[in-house]
Amino acid sequence: MSSPSALTLGEAIENRRSVHKLYDDVSVPDSRIEEIMRHAVLYSPTPFNCQSGRTVLLVKDEHKKFWDLAREIAQATEPPALFEKVYEPRTKMFRAAYGTILFYDDLSALEATEQKWPMLKDKFPQWLDHANGMLQYAGNPPPPPPPKMY
Predict the structure, then answer these.
(1) For residue 4, is it within any domain?
(2) Tell me, which GO biological process terms does this entry list (predicted)?
(3) Half-sphere exposure of 149 (CA within 13 A, CB side)
(4) Is residue 67 one of the residues assigned to a domain?
């Protein structure tokens, strides 16, 4: 396997894992995370290059506030049994991480493109979903390999 900064797309897909143990001990500077996200937003493909993808990066205290709020809302709106079984453990797990990246589409960026191509208007929602997925993938490089256990 190549070094994390030189992975091919195939290697990145092959080595991708869902991480269920999250922690806030991160050695990557915030500036590097921002750089990765800017690059992903700028170069991820969008329908007719409308550049509709956007991100919000929350780290440290802002990240914790976000997950505290998510927990409060879930507790206020979900049945207690569902909250305790699903939402409580998930919000605790996500809060334990260093940061959160929120991905969304700026639909105003798409309006001019839709006006140029009205016959394709019904296709744009699906294409935006695809573009958002590519943005999320591009903005989420694989984690470093776990330490070797001897």
Answers:
(1) no
(2) cellular response to oxidative stress
(3) 1
(4) yes
Please, what is the Cα angle at 52 between 28 and 11, to 5 degrees?
A: 45
How would DSSP label each residue in 23-85? -S---S-HHHHHHHHHHHHHHS--GGG---EEEEEEEHHHHHHHHHHHHHHHHHHS-HHHIII
Give dist(CA 41, CA 134) in Å, integer: 10
Helix (H) or strand (E) holding 102: strand 99-105
In angstroms, how far is the first alpha carbon of the chain from the final one? Answer: 20
Note down the domain range covering 94: 28-138
Give the domain CATH number at 128.
3.40.109.10
pTM: 0.75
Over residues 79-107, the pLDDT tens digits come to 999 999 999 999 999 999 999 999 999 98
Q: What 3-state class would DSSP assign to 100?
A: strand
Q: Specify the DSSP class assigned to residue 86.
A: I
